[in-house]
Amino acid sequence: MFSRVACLGRPSWAILCLLSSSAVLGSVLQNGDDRPLAEKELIFGPENQNVLQIIPVDPKPPSSNPAYPKPLGMSPAAVTSALQDLHSALSVMQSTYFSLWLGKWTTAIDWTAAVLGTHLSSTLSSLSHSLSYTLPGTFDKTVKLDVEAQMVENEINKYFAQSIAYFFGEDAFAIRMEAYDDMLWVVLGWLESMNFINSHSERHYPLTEGIIREESEWHGKQFIPAFAHRARVFYELAEQGWDWELCSGGMLWSPHTLPYKNAITNQLFISAAVSMYLYFPGDDNCSPFMSDQESGVRANFKMGKQDMDECDERMKGKSTYDPIYLASAINGYKWLKNSGMMNEKGLYVDGFHIHDYGKNGTIGTGKCDERNEMVYTYNQGVILSGLRGLWEATGNLTYLEDGHELIRNVIRATGWTDTDTPTIFLTESQHQHDTTKRPSVSNHQAHDQTWSGLGSSGILTELCDPYGTCSQNGQTFKGIFFHHLTNFCTPLPTSATTPGKTFAASKDTATLHQRSCNEYAPWVIHNARSALRTRDEKGRFGMWWGTGLASHGHDFESDTPPAGRLPNRNDPLRPSLPEDATDHQNPVPSSISRCGRFPSDREGQEQPCTTGDLNDRGRGRTVETQGGGVAVVRAMWEFLRHFNKG
Ligand SMILES: *[C@@H]1O[C@H](CO)[C@@H](O)[C@H](O)[C@H]1NC(C)=O
Ligand SMILES: *[C@@H]1O[C@H](CO)[C@@H](O)[C@H](O)[C@H]1NC(C)=O
After folding, report:
1. What's the CA-to-centroid distance between 27 and ligand 2, angstroms?
2. What is the DSSP string of 492-514?
3. Is 204 helix (H, G, I), strand (E, B) or coil?
4. Quick one: pLDDT at residue 590?
5. Rounded to the nearest whole angstrom, what is the distance from the C-alpha of residue 359 to the centroid of ligand 1?
6. Shortest-distance ligand to the CA of residue 365
7. Positive or negative CA dihedral for 210, 214, 217, 219?
8. Is 351 a member of any domain?
9. What angle do CA 160, 99, 533 make, to 5 degrees?
10. Which of 105, 436, 492, 604 could form a disulfide with 510 if both were Cys (CB 3.0 to 4.6 A apart)?
11. Which residues have CB under 8 Å from 90's CB, separation 6+?
């Protein structure tokens, strides 16, 4: 396994191997270890054990069915190995696909790169958090672990430097001319980075008395104004996509196509707006370019006094907790919720066209009345960050309830049967949930192996996955879902971050939220472990996490894992497009085969048939599939980390 090789081969991994063994072999060390007592207490003291106290909830014997991963068991070993896998996934993503001298993931396109940057920053947040309970006394020179803490710190700095390189490698000029969703990925990416910088600095570089702020805080802080500027510029470009004329509101996908009001652009807008409200620190930088489209790029480099004054005027009062951002998010969600964009399974379909638009120079019906029934994983994900942010900004529990309901619908649509629990209600009047109930875990045998809308056998799956025809876009989707799911399930604050501006959860609400997230944890881990099984000898993740799992138990061609099995041509369980769905980007051929076709960039061309790994079909392993691996493994680590808090 790759992680083990890495563990032996890379000095910077020593800490992880050490942690792994200290967790697993804790009792052995306590008995047979001759280090000074004080040191042992530091390592195994109760304040360092939070992560190790995760309840082993799965006492059942391992499944005898080799097609399924071993039962989950949230053991200490599972936690440390998840952290190790996260380091590994990130390391492969950066060493294989990132070109430092260009400041780019060279094979990514603009929007997928923005998503990769987001995964990079959020993973750094996770690694930064992993330090606090495993490496206390980071700056206490008498503690032996100090050395390892510095190694992890060095690792974080290495990747942070790469994300700075990407800040300059990002093609900001090109993205200005792209679609509104492209711009909004950029906004979310740099907000994520700022959140990482702030939390890392607060956590590990506390202000020290007698030392001026700039000298005691983490050096990453110096980039906040630059990142804030990038986020604001792209937010302001994107918000021009809001349109009242058609469908009584909603964001347009792109200024360059016939009007299409789709789930992703609207969800991005909601999440970006509420994140600007909560996290944007303000920006007084009127250069290098202004963000209103009329002045255009040309004005950027020649700003007269009038331009500067206008810019100053526009910037007034735009800072954290600017009510305009919040109002946009609330309004955006109200529109989305009433838009009819959810199907009968409670999943967001892709979006709406307007009937007869452009006919005879008219706007046609002017209504969102031609629905594309296509269901993608990412359309169920991005809104989750928005809903959590909306709750924190308003205290309105409906947002959290909507989020939990959506998550349950997604999990159910993967054929996972453990979450057929009633929808939880957080509001007083609807308080029906039994708070004493333990989260249900395991029982993998029960998962539905038929295509359930977003997967089978409990594995989140893009429709194009089994066919091996996912485009570069499609390859990015599942990771996006898991990124936003992880955000949503971060424990709720029980005291307000900024009293008067943000809301705190009551103890009951915080507990209920956490218990629900605990219920999702086994599903998340099931997905992460399935994804981990797709890694090749170089540690690169594949696209279809269900290889070898999805089709078990039916009449399929058989193969030895990890090659997986394929449904027969006429199998009724074969995933198929919903009626009235169009998927131009990820063509779905009439049957699943070992040959498949190349996706859109080389559409129609047959490719050589593979005899082995199904994840070699189509685009094969890419930086996008790696980003998906990073995101789902990070989700596993975060869900495990918070598991015992319910
Ligand atoms: C478009 O215009 C033509 C000519 O003016 C007219 O005959 C036709 O009915 C119009 N169609 C619609 C859909 O309005
Ligand atoms: C809470 O949010 C929901 C929206 O989704 C809205 O319908 C409801 O009116 C809000 N409640 C309050 C008290 O603002």
Report:
1. 52
2. PPSS-SSTTTS----HHHHHHHH
3. helix
4. 58
5. 8
6. 1
7. negative
8. no
9. 80
10. 492
11. 120, 123, 127, 159, 630
For residue 399, the ligand closest to its alpha carbon is 2
Q: For residue 393, give the ligand nearest its CA.
A: 2
CB distance 252 to 180 below 8 Å = yes
Q: What confidence score (pLDDT) does residue 178 get? A: 96
Compute the distance between CA of residue 460 and CA of residue 476 in angstroms, rounded to an integer: 13
Q: Say how many C-beta atoms besides its own lie within 10 A of residue 574's C-beta.
A: 19
- Please give the helix or strand (H or E) that residue 571 lies within, else none: none
Q: Does the residue 60 lie in any domain? A: no
Give 455's strand partners: 460
Residues 6+ apart with CB under 8 A from 226: 167
Q: Which residues pair with 262 in a beta bridge?
A: 351
Pocket test for ligand 2, best of 398, 425, 429 (most atoms within 8 A of CB): 398
Residue from 359, 360, 363 to probe ligand 1 pocket by mutation (most atoms less than 8 Å from CB): 360
Distance 262 CA to ligand 2 centre (A): 23
Span from the CA of 275 to the centroid of ligand 2 (angstroms): 19
Residue pLDDT, tens place only, 1-43: 222 222 322 333 222 332 233 332 222 222 333 333 333 222 2
What's the 397 CA to ligand 2 centre distance in angstroms? 8
The verdict on whether omega for the bond into residue 493 sits within 30 degrees of 0, i.e. cis, is no
Nearest atom within ligand 1 for CA of residue 356: 13
- Number of residues in the chain: 646
- Specify the pLDDT at position 319: 81
Domain assignment of residue 471, yes or no:
yes
**């070109």: which residue's tokens?**
99
Q: Whose CA is nearest to atom 2 of ligand 2?
A: 398
pLDDT digits (tens, 9 = 90+) for 578-601: 777 777 666 666 566 666 555 544
Please indicate, yes or no, if residue 387 is contained in any of the structural domains: yes
> Which residue ranges have their beta carbon within 6 Å of ligand 2?
333, 337, 396, 398
Amino acid at position 309, single letter: D
> Which residue minimizes the CA distance to atom 14 of ligand 1?
360
Q: Which of 353, 382, 387 is nearest to 368 (CA)?
A: 353
* Residue 190 identity: W
Residue 232, both tokens: 């604001």
Say which ligand is closest to the CA of 394.
2
Q: How far is the CA of 259 from the centre of ligand 1 (A)?
A: 21
Using an 8 Å Cβ cutoff, are 348 and 261 in contact?
no
**Which H, E and C letters describe 206-259, residue by residue?**
CCCCCCCHHHHCCHHHHHHHHHHHHHHHHHHHHHHHECCCCCCCCECCCCCCCC
Shortest-distance atom of ligand 1 to CA 362: 14
**Closest residue CA from atom 4 of ligand 1:** 360
- Whether the upstream peptide bond of residue 562 has omega within 30° of 0, thus cis, is yes
Domain that holds residue 583: 378-646
- Determine the residue type at 406: L
Mutate to test the pocket of ligand 2, among 396, 430, 503 (most ligand atoms within 8 A of CB): 396
Q: How many domains does the chain have?
A: 1
Is there a contact between 72 and 58 (Cβ–Cβ < 8 Å)?
Answer: yes
Q: Is the peptide bond before 69 cis (omega within 30 degrees of 0)?
A: no
Q: Which residues line ligand 1 (CB under 6 A)?
A: 359-360
Contacts of 46 (CB under 8 A, 6+ apart): none
Q: How many CB atoms lie within 10 A of CB 26?
A: 16
Nearest ligand for residue 356 CA: 1
Q: Which residues of the chain have pLDDT under 50?
A: 1-72, 133-138, 290-302, 419-445, 550-565, 567-570, 572, 600-601
